[in-house]
């Protein structure tokens, strides 16, 4: 009896070790992309809310798929990236959107909550062929909406409202069902392919 009770914990430890070295960790290119994304953004200090990036610790040997706030994975690849905290008392993030987001090859959802993120929307997002949702609302993004985004075949929700975007709206050639722009600086026709 003592022998089997000793083997159970040992078996569990060996299985956990095998799992941790078996390649079930985050893909290295996704890890590098997350590092660049964090380098391009910063938490706006707030006494009311914990910093969003407080769990993004690259010095600790943990898998970001299980330990980083806003990161969800499927088969060791980042599939959902939610940047910021959806709380009214949180001032959000500041900085720019890193083009490194495009290295998250299996990304299906990109969500950026309210903050002071400035600069353009990275055109490289158009390389993320699995993207279904892009929501970058209530920030200070500027420039044109990259027309290639409207060609993402799986994209069904695009919410770029409450930013400072300008220029034309490109015709959609995808499965876009929801388009939220709410900007006085945009021009052009709303794509006819959208449902009424």
Q: What is the global morphology?
A: globular
Count of individual helical segments: 3
Question: Cα-atom Rg, whole angstroms?
Answer: 20 Å
Extract low-pLDDT stretches.
Answer: 1-8, 10-24
Strands of the largest sheet, in order across it?
2-3-5-7-9-12
Largest sheet, in brief, is: 6 strands, mixed
Quick check: average pLDDT?
83
Order of helices and strands: HHEHEEEEEEEEEEEE
How would you sum up this structure, described in words?
This protein has 196 residues and is of the alpha/beta class. It is built from three helices and 13 strands; from the N terminus they run ααβαββββββββββββ. β2 and β3 form a beta hairpin. The longest helix is centred in the first third of the chain and has 20 residues. The protein starts with a helix and ends in a 9-residue tail after the last strand. The relative contact order is 0.11. The N terminus is likely disordered.
């Amino acid at each position: 009896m003592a022998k089997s009770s000793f083997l159970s914990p040992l078996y569990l430890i060996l299985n956990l070790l095998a799992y941790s070295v078996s390649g079930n960790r985050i893909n290295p290119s996704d890890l590098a992309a997350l590092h660049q994304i964090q380098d391009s953004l910063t938490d706006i200090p707030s006494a009311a809310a914990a910093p969003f990036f407080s769990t993004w610790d690259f010095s600790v040997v943990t898998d970001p798929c299980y330990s980083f706030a806003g990161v969800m994975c499927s088969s060791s690849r980042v599939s959902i990236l939610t940047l910021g905290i959806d709380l009214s008392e949180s001032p959000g993030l500041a900085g720019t959107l890193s083009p490194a987001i495009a290295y998250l090859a299996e990304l299906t959802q990109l969500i950026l909550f309210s903050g002071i993120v400035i600069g353009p929307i990275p055109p490289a997002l158009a390389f993320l062929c699995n993207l279904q949702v892009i929501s970058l609302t209530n920030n200070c993004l500027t420039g044109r909406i990259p027309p290639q985004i409207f060609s993402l075949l799986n994209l069904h929700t695009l919410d770029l409202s409450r930013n400072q975007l300008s220029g034309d709206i490109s015709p959609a050639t995808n499965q876009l069902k929801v388009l939220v722009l709410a900007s006085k600086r945009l021009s052009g026709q709303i794509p006819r392919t959208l449902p009424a």
